[in-house]
């Protein structure tokens, strides 16, 4: 009967911490509804892979030999070997996004670029704190509040901290409604937050909508070749949507495909949350630097809008700049809610949506740029 208690005897204090992390993520997913589609599978997976002698990861068993664990197999096939899971998710995301508000107001493209400032600031900070360049670059991407891009970049660069980076990225995506208002108020005055903007949408032709994803893919691929898979899959999903002839595929990509990949990605990434790799001081540093990156991305977009106001007659509400991060559509909703709170007659949603979808493009291009740059030094 000793084999029945063998697992209990093998539990370490690091395992207990990971059980706590798992329960915390599940609690946040269910009680607080923070990114439940991802945090719940990640939380359960963190418990699954940290059970002693867990059959979810590869084990060598006496008399049997090597036994393949499903979670480790999924990680090896879907993330480590091909990055297939995060890339396939981009097809679903692209099929959900309407770039119309951005195309009708191209100025919003600028905010998708400006709001990536925190990525490069955090990269520099992580390097100063002693992280290797590949790890520092992976940590910096957390600032984009884009989980799939964070996972993809950290995996391609071979970072040792994929699990911590994924948890940080998705946690801060979930905390957008809490963190962003504080960051915005830190660098704006009440008067600035009350600036009214009148939305006069220009018509966007069907041809423009179709050519846009093709053009973005080609430009991004020429400027940052490593971004082709990131941008290309996102834009492919959008092309399916805008073609107007693939309604069933659009529906499948934005619902069934996105939901299935999200489910698999959440529990698969938990393989990198094993206690021996996760419970260390570096994980705490990554969470802290990730928060700095996220805050500075928000501030970068807001400050850029304030600088533009120095040179334009038509003033931009600087809160729009904060929506330039990749957390779509949460960040746009935060800006809209803050705008209505400052002035109930001020509707900023469509401007914020334009900046927000630009941020989605900006984050994947930034990921590709970082991959290209870092590969020059490695």
Could you describe the 3D structure shown?
- The protein is mainly α and 378 residues long.
- It has one domain.
- 71% of the residues lie in helices and 2% in strands.
- The protein has helices at 2-10, 13-30, 36-48, 70-80, 84-96, 100-103, 109-114, 117-128, 133-140, 147-156, 162-174, 176-186, 190-193, 206-223, 228-243, 247-268, 275-278, 281-309, 319-322, 330-342, 349-377; strands spanning 59-61, 65-67.
- The protein has a two-stranded antiparallel ribbon with strand order 1-2.
- A hairpin with a 3-residue loop joins strand 1 (59-61) and strand 2 (65-67).
- Helix 3 runs parallel beside helix 16 (247-268), helix 5 runs antiparallel to helix 10 and helix 15 runs antiparallel to helix 21 (349-377).
- The mean pLDDT is 87.
- GO terms for molecular function: lyase activity.
- It is found in: Cell membrane.
- Pfam families: OAD_beta.
């Amino acid at each position: 009967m000793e084999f029945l208690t063998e697992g209990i005897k093998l539990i370490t204090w690091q395992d207990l911490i990971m059980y706590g992390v798992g329960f915390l993520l599940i609690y946040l997913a269910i009680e607080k509804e923070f990114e439940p589609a991802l945090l719940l599978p990640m939380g359960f997976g963190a418990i699954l892979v940290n059970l002693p002698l867990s059959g979810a990861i590869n084990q060598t068993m006496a008399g049997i030999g090597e036994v393949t664990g499903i979670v480790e197999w999924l990680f090896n096939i879907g993330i480590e070997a091909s990055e297939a899971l995060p890339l396939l998710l981009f097809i679903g995301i692209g099929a959900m996004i309407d770039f119309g508000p951005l195309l009708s107001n191209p100025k919003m493209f600028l905010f998708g670029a400006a709001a990536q400032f925190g990525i490069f600031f955090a990269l520099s900070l992580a390097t100063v704190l002693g992280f290797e360049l590949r790890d520092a670059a992976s940590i910096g991407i957390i600032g984009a509040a884009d989980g799939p891009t964070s996972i993809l970049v950290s995996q391609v660069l071979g970072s040792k901290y994929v699990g911590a980076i994924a948890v940080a990225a998705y946690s801060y995506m979930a905390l957008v409604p809490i963190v962003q208002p504080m960051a915005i108020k830190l660098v704006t005055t009440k008067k600035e937050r009350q600036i009214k903007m009148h939305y006069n949408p220009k018509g966007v032709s069907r041809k423009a909508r179709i050519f846009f994803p093709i053009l973005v893919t080609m430009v991004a691929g020429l400027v940052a070749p490593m971004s082709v898979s990131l941008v290309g899959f996102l834009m492919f999903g959008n092309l399916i949507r805008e073609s107007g002839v693939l309604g069933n595929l659009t529906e499948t990509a934005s619902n069934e495909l996105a939901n299935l990949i999200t489910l698999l990605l959440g529990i698969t990434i938990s393989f990198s949350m094993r206690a021996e790799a996760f419970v260390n001081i570096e994980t705490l540093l990554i969470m802290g630097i990730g928060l700095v990156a996220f805050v500075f991305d928000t501030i970068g977009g807001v400050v850029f809008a304030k600088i533009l106001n120095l040179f334009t007659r038509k003033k931009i509400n600087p809160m729009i700049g904060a929506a330039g991060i990749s957390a779509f559509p949460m960040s746009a909703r935060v800006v809209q809610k803050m705008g209505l709170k400052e002035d109930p007659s001020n509707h900023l949603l469509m401007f914020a949506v334009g900046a927000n979808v630009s941020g989605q493009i900006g984050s994947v291009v930034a990921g590709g740029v970082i991959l290209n740059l870092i590969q020059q030094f490695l």
